[in-house]
Amino acid sequence: VLGASARYHRRDQGALWSTHTRRQLQEELVHLQSLFEKLKMSDKFEEKIKNYRTAPFDARFPNTNQTRNCYQNYLDFHRCNKALSAKNQDTAPCQWYRRVYKSLCPISWVEKWDGQLESGSFAGRI
Amino acid sequence: MLLTIRKQLRSHPALIPLFFFIGGGATMSLLYLARLGLRNPDVSWDRKNNPEPWNKLSPNYQYKFFAVNTDYSKLKKDRPDF
């Protein structure tokens, strides 16, 4: 960010505005906007996780059999952790998935899958 | 076999509605099975190229014919993006 402000100052010193400068500015703006969105997202989900009661209705799984709902949230929790830590972001929003699968899945399934993950024999795509 | 059926129908024409109703019932069953196989969000046909088709549905998607308590127009996505 310090580097960015130095660049702006140099531009202010009477240089002509080229398209290259404008593009850099736009890229900076997009980058800052995405950072702001991510900050808002973790705040929003922090509040949701604090007010969590139970798994909400999921239109992808409308029937009585919620097996796939449980499994999908389990997968999504691990995928979210993997994706956000690969981007070096805070993995706190992923706790939403953890709460949902803990509400839905039988404990024995969760223990079995955790064991499989640790031993490397988990069959799902994470 | 069709010839036999046609001969029998000509002597007992009251049997014709029977064919309509049985045929209609069988068609409806097959149509329901087809809808279940192709439109049910729990189903995945091609695990290699399209592994989780239920994730492509909008949060408003209504599969059931009658929605008793859920107002589908008010639903929105409430899961974190990643």
UniProtKB/TrEMBL annotation, chain A:
Primary subcellular site in the record, as a coarse category: mitochondrion
InterPro entries: COX6B-like, CX6/COA6-like_sf, Cyt_c_oxidase_su6B
Compartments, record wording: Mitochondrion
Record keywords, A-Z: Disulfide bond, Mitochondrion
Key word Disulfide bond present: yes
Transmembrane segments: none
Matches recorded under SUPFAM superfamilies: Cytochrome c oxidase subunit h (SSF47694)
Protein's UniProt keywords contain Mitochondrion: yes
PANTHER family: CYTOCHROME C OXIDASE SUBUNIT 6B (PTHR11387)
Protein name: Cytochrome c oxidase subunit 6B1
Organism: Characodon lateralis
Encoding gene per record: COX6B1_1
TrEMBL record, chain B:
Subcellular location: Mitochondrion inner membrane
Chief subcellular location: mitochondrion
Keyword Transport assigned: yes
Transmembrane annotation, as ranges: 12-34
Pfam families to which the protein is assigned, alphabetical: B12D (PF06522)
Coiled coil: none
InterPro entries xrefs: B12D
Keywords assigned: Electron transport, Membrane, Mitochondrion, Mitochondrion inner membrane, Respiratory chain, Transmembrane, Transmembrane helix, Transport
Membrane topology listed for this record: Single-pass membrane protein
Family membership noted in the UniProt record: Belongs to the complex IV NDUFA4 subunit family.
Protein name in UniProt: Cytochrome c oxidase subunit NDUFA4
Source organism of the structure: Characodon lateralis
